[in-house]
């Protein structure tokens, strides 16, 4: 269902690079430490459930400031750092799919991601429409598992474009077969 697909050009690599910039600007130069900073991002960042309250906490000095939500916030509001993209909630609203949202990928492992997304969608969606957000047990491998099931489907040969078909017909075979 191609009408349900939306791409937001904000992902894990951008978040890691932004965190490298923040740390390098404020503390020490870590621009060459992608692996380390990516691990830091995965280990300590979270998605804020109460943005304005967390912003107040972030203004405190020393150990009272325990907030690590600024980097994942980019997934919801990329324009905050000058990226002219819609956030994930707006992308889902644009696709008009509220009842069958499946979260995949590493970024949804941030604590609080599913809850924040569901709350924002509920606030944006018409009141009469149900909102359902599913987070699989292993969201990183979930798409691969779906592809594996498809590959074992009896209809597989009918729904794929073979290399030979593509080489003979070019991208037109994909447009024809997948109605794109």
TrEMBL record:
GO terms for cellular component: cytoplasm; nucleus. The keyword Transmembrane does not apply. It is found in: Cytoplasm. SMART domains: ACTIN. It comes from the Eukaryota. PANTHER family: ACTIN. Belongs to the actin family. ARP6 subfamily. This is Actin-related protein 6. The lineage of its organism: Eukaryota, Metazoa, Chordata, Craniata, Vertebrata.
């Amino acid at each position: 269902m191609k009408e349900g697909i939306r791409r937001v050009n904000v992902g894990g690599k951008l978040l890691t690079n932004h965190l490298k910039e923040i740390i390098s600007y404020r503390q020490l130069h870590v621009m060459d430490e992608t692996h380390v900073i990516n691990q830091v991002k995965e280990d300590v960042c979270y998605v804020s459930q109460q943005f304005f309250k967390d912003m107040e906490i972030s203004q405190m000095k020393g150990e009272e400031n325990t907030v690590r939500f600024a980097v994942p916030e980019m997934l919801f509001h990329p324009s905050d750092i000058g990226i002219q993209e819609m956030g994930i909630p707006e992308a889902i609203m644009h696709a008009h799919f509220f009842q069958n949202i499946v979260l995949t990928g590493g970024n949804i492992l941030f604590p609080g991601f599913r809850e924040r997304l569901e709350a924002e969608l509920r606030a944006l969606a018409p009141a009469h429409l149900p909102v359902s957000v599913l987070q699989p047990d292993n969201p990183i491998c979930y798409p691969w598992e779906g592809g594996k099931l498809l590959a074992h489907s009896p209809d597989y040969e009918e729904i794929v474009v073979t290399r030979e078909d593509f080489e003979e017909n070019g991208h037109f075979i994909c447009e024809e077969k997948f109605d794109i």
